[in-house]
Amino acid sequence: MEKILDEKQQGNTLVIEPRKGNSRKLFIESYGCAMNFSDSEIVASILSKEGFDTTQHLEEADLVLVNTCSIREKAEQTVRKRLEKYNAVKRINPKMKVGVLGCMAERLKSKFLEEEKIVDLVVGPDAYKDLPNLINDVEEGRDAVNVLLSKDETYGDISPVRLQSNGVSAFVSITRGCDNMCTFCVVPFTRGRERSRDPQSIVEEVNDLAEKGFKEITLLGQNVDSYLWYGGGLKKDFKNASEMQKATSVNFAALLKLCAEAQPKMRIRFSTSNPQDMTMDVIETMANYRNICDYIHLPVQSGSDRILKKMNRLHTRKEYFEMIDNIKKLIPDCGISHDIITGFPTETEEDHQDTLELMEYVKYHFGYMFAYSERPGTMAERKFEDDVPEEIKKRRLTEIVNLQRKHSLYRTQTFIGKTVEVLIEKESKKSDAHWSGRTQQSTVAVFPKENYKVGDFVNVKISDCTSATLIGEAVGYSHLTPEEGIEATIK
Ligand code: SAH
Ligand code: F3S
């Protein structure tokens, strides 16, 4: 549970088995959201065609790329620290080139080259296809910056190289960018306008993952519920263009259905849902398909109507409760998690109490909680004073973290005595005699290995728990393993 605060900020080294035959070595690491990790897989794919294999040893890299996050100031500081480390290595290996990718690249642009002497190239999230040219520029001694944002780049045609994968779960991007303009958020500035990827390329990627043995996919977008693809079709079959668009367009619920039916034995997850864009047909689709996981990450940010409005979150507290009630009605066991920010400008004790009260109503399974961090260029930075003192932000944060811990325990305890379906992902960190995996609700469960293996769907009888983990024993394979066909999918 201690991980709650920084889970989204932690960096990881991404590694794949070196491919034979390529001569240059790429060290790539990612910070921030799942989309960054997914993008790094696209980058690795683009560069493998340019003769780069990935390495996990910084010292032997010809090219070091860091995929960065700007969401909070702390995330940027973490990256600056990493650059110091690269600098130390570059003293030993002066030929090494260093590139910055992602949101910090987009936010700081060529200023990066001035501020950090170690940096050779700066590449924004929509410009990765230009990497081969940019690397060429660097090798020929020119500065290399491309931070152009695109209205249509989705990388839909690139098959990602799966980095440091357990071979069980994978991310599949479905939208890029965000048009929501929450006033605290830097993402619309660093990732540009929202655009949806062709559903056919999404389903092809899902099919390809299934063929490679993957058992779970997470459809990724900053705001998945606004996914919308205007389909094509033959004009002659329709009265006019708008009728054709209506008949052939694919929204998020339809995309979920397409994926669930394409691979009935695969678990389907998605992230992230903004409550203002989530619709009943998504919840209904989740309820109808067994292989769409009963779990929704539904960030609320605040429980106060006044603060929600100032944040430009376009729903009220009442509407949020209605959505929660609807979810519970159709999917009684649905796991729900949140993001909450404490200390947004002008937040009073009363607003904070509203947030605590909202949490009491929902009793989230888990959540990600943050103290407000003012981001340059955002509406909040331009319009509001960052006027809640740091120690008050921290105190309120501690209060919501403590309440969440209580609710997490309440939720895990409800599993005791029940049998739940777990997809085995890896060995438990605490014991090499136990497997670790997740339930449909995304709660971690550990149990003795017996003869099961990574990638198996197993029914686990839960006998004990902590606030973050279920502890139990396997009682056999679950329905997803032996059965074939669409009948197994529809509830
Ligand atoms: N829609 C996105 C949200 C990205 S940001 C997604 O796919 O997850 C993730 C979370 O970071 C937000 O929900 C918010 O709770 C938090 N966050 C964003 N900007 C922040 C800021 N300026 N200060 C503190 N937390 C912030
Ligand atoms: Fe950020 Fe709001 Fe979009 S949190 S990513 S602007 S939905």
Explained architecture:
This protein has a domain at 419-484: Beta Barrel (OB fold (Dihydrolipoamide Acetyltransferase, E2P)), CATH 2.40.50.140. Helix 7 (199-211) runs parallel beside helix 9 (252-262), helix 9 runs parallel beside helix 10 (280-288) and helix 13 (349-362) runs parallel beside helix 15. The chain has 491 residues and is an alpha/beta fold. A hairpin with a 3-residue loop joins strand 21 and strand 22 (469-477). Strands 1, 2, 3, 4, 5, 6 and 7 form a seven-stranded mixed sheet that branches. The chain has a five-stranded mixed β-barrel with strand order 18-19-20-22-21. Residues 1-19 and 481-485 have low confidence and may be disordered. It has helices at residues 34-48, 73-92, 102-108, 111-115, 131-139, 187-191, 199-211, 241-248, 252-262, 280-288, 305-310, 317-330, 349-362, 379-383, 390-413, and strands at 12-14, 24-30, 52-54, 63-68, 97-101, 121-123, 144-146, 169-173, 175-176, 195-196, 216-220, 228-229, 250-251, 267-271, 295-297, 335-342, 366-371, 419-427, 434-438, 444-448, 457-465, 469-477. The longest helix is centred in the last third of the chain and has 24 residues, at 390-413. The chain is globular and about 65 Å long. It is built from 15 helices and 22 strands. The site of FE3-S4 cluster has 10 residues, from helix 6. FE3-S4 cluster is lined by residues 178, 180-182, 185, 187-188, 222-223, 274. This is tRNA-2-methylthio-N(6)-dimethylallyladenosine synthase. Keywords: 4Fe-4S, Cytoplasm, Iron, Iron-sulfur, Metal-binding, S-adenosyl-L-methionine, Transferase, tRNA processing. Its main location: cytoplasm.
